[in-house]
Amino acid sequence: MNQDIYTQKRPKAIVIAGPTASGKSLLSVDLALALKGEIINADSMQVYRGMDIGTAKPTIEERKGITHHLLDVVDPDEEFNTALYRSLALPMVSDICSRGKTCFVVGGTGLYIKGLIKGLFDCPRTDIKIRETLNKECKEMGSEFLHARLRKLDPESACTIHPNDRMRIIRALEIIILTDSRPSDLKKSHGFNEDNLKALKLCLNVDREELYSRINRRTRAMVESGLPEETENLLKKGYSPGLKAMKSIGYRHMIKYLRGEWSIEETVYRLQMDTRRYAKRQLTWFRSDPEFIWLEPQDFDAFLEKTSKFLIETS
Questions:
Q1: Contacts of 42 by beta carbon, 8 Å cutoff, 6+ apart
Q2: CA 97 – CA 37 distance, rounded (Å)
Q3: By CB distance 3.0 to 4.6 Å, which of 204, 241, 256, 261 could disulfide with 18?
């Protein structure tokens, strides 16, 4: 492929997005093999070391020799967020393109993808006292109670956050308290119109029934492959169940099982259910973005055609 396409003003990135268990990892590896590419991870959980099974992190064998960036970046007790992700990923896109490689950004964390491509609006750092107060209130009254408060203060933001998404609800309320502004207004004023790179955004379109079946099968396979042991090992290393990473899907379920609060059958059932709910939220996020092109995951030729055409286009 003509090397000139990689030396244009804006570096190019091909985004391969989709809900959990849709087949992003394997598809992107095959595309990278066909187009001499490298992959930048865009999954907020795969950045953590020692959290492999529960995050469905691609194994060395599954990577097929393709270079993967931003996997195993931090320990479970270290801070990682969208701003840090962007600061690391953006120069990687430029570097990959400058070396004549095709850059793929692969994952299901919509906020990471949006932050990388469109930029981020400035918002205040976490205030520990405010966060502790809101966490205490959430524990006592429930996340739906705080979500109702957010709905009164910022209806637009509340519409984009699930009533059970405790962390995002608390963060939105924290921003309101610290800035006396609504997060939705801050987002509008920013505009998200940065153009540091040119992106082709492809999303895997999986039939809902098939997706849920995949999730159920993969969840059971994770448990059988050692997710309980992986979680127990993390706890033995001293990682608190209260950590953000340890409260994520899969690990919080295994902690309940290891404590004897749930049977293995109930654990698998709840994990499958919560993963399906998470996939539904991911789909809602990606469908709200008109820039995404939806393709069937089994149609490799369609992905290859769209990607090849994008790479030879001029900026």
A1: 15, 17, 70, 85, 89, 105, 106, 107, 108, 109, 112, 113, 116
A2: 9
A3: 204
In the numeric block, which tokens belong to residue 155? Answer: 């209806």
* Section 176-199 average pLDDT: 75
Q: No. of H helices and E strands in the chain?
A: 14, 6
State the DSSP code for 219: H
Joined tokens for residue 17: 């997005």
Q: Is 38 helix (H, G, I), strand (E, B) or coil?
A: strand
The answer, yes or no, to whether residue 7 has pLDDT greater than 80, is no
* The domain boundary residue, chosen from 190, 207, 224: 190
Can you give the pLDDT at residue 195? 67
Residues 228, 113 share a domain: yes
Enumerate the β-bridge partners of residue 103: 38
Helix, strand, or coil (residue 102): strand
Least confident of 161-170, 237-246, 271-280: 161-170
Position 15, amino acid: V
| Mean pLDDT score, 106-114 | 96
Q: What are the residues whose beta carbons fall under 8 Å from the beta carbon of 305, sequence distance 6 or more? A: none
Total domains in the chain come to 2
| 150: containing domain | 128-190
Whether 101 and 220 share a structural domain: yes
pLDDT at 174 (0 to 100): 87
pLDDT in tens, 74-104: 999 998 999 899 999 999 999 999 999 999 9
